[in-house]
Design a protein that fits this description.
Blueprint (H helix, E strand, L loop, with lengths): L10 E4 L6 E6 L10 E8 L6 E4 L5 E5 L18 E10 L5 E8 L1 H16 L4 H26 L3 H21 L6 H7 L1
Antiparallel strand pairs: 1-2, 2-5, 3-4, 3-6, 6-7
């Protein structure tokens, strides 16, 4: 492995607020000489094989289902799956500088959460039930945030457990709508 002075690789995963795309910015510093070659990003997509793709240095890279081989190039894009992704950015020759990141995508879950949240304002229920719904949605939100934090700290199992619990609670919330009892709020917060 070769160490090149002035070369520090880093990537930032930036929100695109779109379930079709993943945004990755290059936050690396590169030496003027020698020039880096073959910048490559290996993406571990949940439920699929790892995909190696060219990476544009000093740029914002947008990845979608076609980029990852999940849909046909030029065809209709499909939502990227939620779950834990691994990102490994490297350049050649085999420099000792590389960067690995673990993240979780929650865009599909977040879209469902947003829909549930918007229904909350439109529900015509009594005050205790509205407060109970807010408590339930707050609990789901904290599980989603916990899942993100766990993935950011490479705690993949914890991240998946929190994601699954949030999804289950959200399914129950959406299924039950405004038929909850409000007892949790009355017992715990009144």
């Amino acid at each position: 492995m070769t160490t090149i002075p002035g070369l520090t690789l880093d990537i930032l995963v930036l929100p695109t607020y779109n379930k079709l795309t993943l945004g990755i910015a290059d936050a690396s510093t590169y030496p003027t000489s020698p020039a880096v070659q073959s910048p490559t990003l290996v993406v571990g997509v949940p439920g699929f094989e790892d995909v190696s793709i060219p990476f544009n240095i000093n740029d914002f890279n947008i990845i979608n289902s076609a980029t990852l081989g999940l849909s046909e190039v030029g065809g209709e894009l499909v939502p990227l799956p939620d779950g834990v992704y691994t990102l490994n950015y490297s350049v050649t020759p085999a420099y000792s500088n590389y960067v690995n990141k673990t993240i979780i995508r929650v865009e599909q879950l977040q879209e469902r959460f947003d829909n549930a949240f918007m229904q909350l304002d439109m529900m015509e229920c009594d005050m205790a039930i509205k407060k109970q719904d807010k408590v339930d949605l707050s609990s789901i939100y904290f599980l989603i945030q916990g899942s993100i934090a766990a993935a950011n700290n490479c705690a993949v199992d914890t991240s998946n457990k929190l994601y699954n619990q949030a999804s289950k609670m959200l399914n129950n919330f959406m299924k039950n709508g405004c038929r909850c009892s409000g007892n949790n709020y009355i017992i715990n917060f009144k």
